[in-house]
Amino acid sequence: MKPFSDFELKLRDICLAHPESFKRNYITKEELNQLSQRINMDFSDMLTIPFDESLDENSFFKEGENVAIVEHARYLPPLIHSHAFFELVYVREGSCTHYMDDKAHALTAGDICIIAPNHIHALAAFTDDADIINLQIRTSTFEKSFLGILSDRDVLSDFFMHCLYNIKGQTCITFRCSEDLYLKSLSNLLAQEFNTSNKYRGRMMDSLISTFFIQLLREHEKDVVLDPDNKSPNDDNLILMLQYIQNNYATLSLSELARFFGYSTRHITRLIKESTGKNFSDITKELRMKKAAELLKNRELPITTIIETLGYTDLSTFYKAFKGYYGVAPAKYRDNL
Fold this sequence. Notes:
Elements: H1 6-17, H2 19-22, H3 29-39, H4 43-46, E1 54-55, H5 57-60, E2 67-71, E3 82-83, E4 86-93, E5 95-100, E6 103-108, E7 111-115, E8 121-124, E9 131-137, H6 139-147, H7 154-164, E10 172-176, H8 181-194, H9 201-220, E11 224-225, H10 238-248, H11 254-261, H12 265-276, H13 280-295, H14 303-309, H15 315-326, H16 330-336
Parallel strand pairs: 1-3
Antiparallel strand pairs: 2-9, 4-7, 4-9, 5-6, 5-8, 7-10, 10-11
Helix pairs in contact: 6-9, 7-10, 8-9, 11-12, 13-15
């Protein structure tokens, strides 16, 4: 268990004296001000970061920096708030309660919850063993570091984009990472860098946050949990289904996919469209075209071999698809490289 700071010890004493004000799903700014007056303690003066109901990027981040690290204070009143940037809550030890959309969700050790911008939420950690850090990330940096990593994996990229931008009704996604020592080590390095004035500090934090996301997606892509109160029974198979498409797009048909997962073709068509914003045929075509472009970089590889690798049965169909996607014939594309 990490040592208590003087601030946390003071918070714990106040919480024990006023449990009715602290141990709630959330508290508004007005209620927090009333509590401050009642106990003669100004919370805003004691914190080194903005503590408000609504935060924008310019008021929160230092100029020229894209990442901010905050260790969540144990026994801090759960102020309900929103912000114009992404927040990543990493429960390294212990547990806490995340309040969002009028519901309370439990987060336990190893959980990483990514919260989309402009959604009202609050975090409550009222146990001695809680060790929680909040990583605030500019929206543009998040898209580059998180979704940018998925640029060559369009199916999953579309899925995460839908979830995180609330296209699918989700305001956050949670990764159940359990005991990942590498992620914990990276979070320590991020916190250490943030608390220094080293040269190139901002660039170092950008690099570390990108590495953090690579590890998260590499090792825990299958450990995604959607909001249990909003998800449908089909959501449990979504990640597996998208990965199955990713791995078998060259020869996979919609009917084969439906049969493998036990759905009707009509139902699985709707499910894919809802989760990615694209049709099955569009997804497989994109995957084939991007793989074709990658294979064309090898000038020694015959185009006939590329066609066979991508599951096409004749040259004309491949040429038509490739030119329609890239605007030039495969041979011309190779020459332009």
